[in-house]
């Protein structure tokens, strides 16, 4: 893992924690292992994983063990965002209101294409949506 990638992952985690709403229904995953997946995705279409088996299939056994220690799959799931973009792309929890959590995606302004994987623990009873910080209609 390059130093630049480690620094960017640290910045994304700190940014997410800074904007964290304090709502126990949704929180960023705190992992010592980096999330890794070969599957490409769309930032606006995250995958919701409802079991340890789903996590193993998408993120691998090591990530599944670390995730399983932090949550209970009976009441929560893992919302996984995967996308390609600038190394300075950011995704953060914007609001949790009326049973819906809103994530805000901010595009980076650098031309260094990177693969991003970010995960959140999410209560199974609430919904989610993703907004684009660059979209004036949001």
Structure overview:
By secondary structure, the protein is α+β, with helices and mostly antiparallel strands. The chain has one domain (3-132). 23% of the residues lie in helices and 36% in strands. The protein has helices at residues 3-18, 52-59, 61-68, and strands at 26-28, 47-49, 76-86, 90-97, 100-106, 113-123, 127-132. The strands form 2 sheets. A 4-stranded antiparallel β-sheet has the order 1-6-3-2. Helix 2 packs antiparallel against helix 3. The longest helix is centred in the first third of the chain and has 16 residues, at 3-18.
Question: What key phrases describe this protein's structure?
Answer:
four-stranded antiparallel β-sheet, alpha+beta, 36% strand, 138 residues, three-stranded mixed β-sheet
Enumerate the spans where pLDDT stays under 50 for 5 or more consecutive residues: 10-22
Mean pLDDT: 81
The quaternary state of the protein chains shown equals single chain
Strand order of the largest sheet: 1-6-3-2
Give, in order, the helices and strands. HEEHHEEEEE
How many H/I helices?
A: 3
Number of domains: 1
List the helices and strands and how they pair.
Elements: H1 3-18, E1 26-28, E2 47-49, H2 52-59, H3 61-68, E3 76-86, E4 90-97, E5 100-106, E6 113-123, E7 127-132
Parallel strand pairs: 5-7
Antiparallel strand pairs: 1-6, 2-3, 3-6, 4-5
Helix pairs in contact: 2-3
Task: Give a brief description.
The chain has 138 residues and is of the alpha+beta class. Helices cover 23% and strands 36% of the residues. It has one domain.
């Amino acid at each position: 893992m390059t130093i630049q990638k480690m620094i960017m992952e640290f910045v994304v985690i700190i940014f997410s924690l800074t904007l964290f709403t304090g709502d126990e229904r949704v929180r960023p995953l705190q992992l010592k292992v980096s999330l890794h997946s070969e599957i490409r995705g769309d930032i606006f279409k995250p995958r919701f994983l409802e079991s340890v088996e789903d996590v193993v299939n998408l993120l691998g056994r090591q990530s599944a063990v670390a995730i399983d220690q932090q949550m209970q799959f009976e009441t929560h799931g893992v919302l996984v965002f995967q996308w390609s973009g600038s190394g300075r792309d950011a995704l953060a929890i914007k609001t949790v209101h009326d049973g819906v959590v809103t994530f805000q995606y901010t595009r980076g302004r650098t031309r260094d294409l990177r693969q991003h994987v970010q995960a959140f623990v999410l209560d199974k009873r609430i919904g989610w949506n993703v907004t684009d910080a660059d979209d004036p209609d949001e």
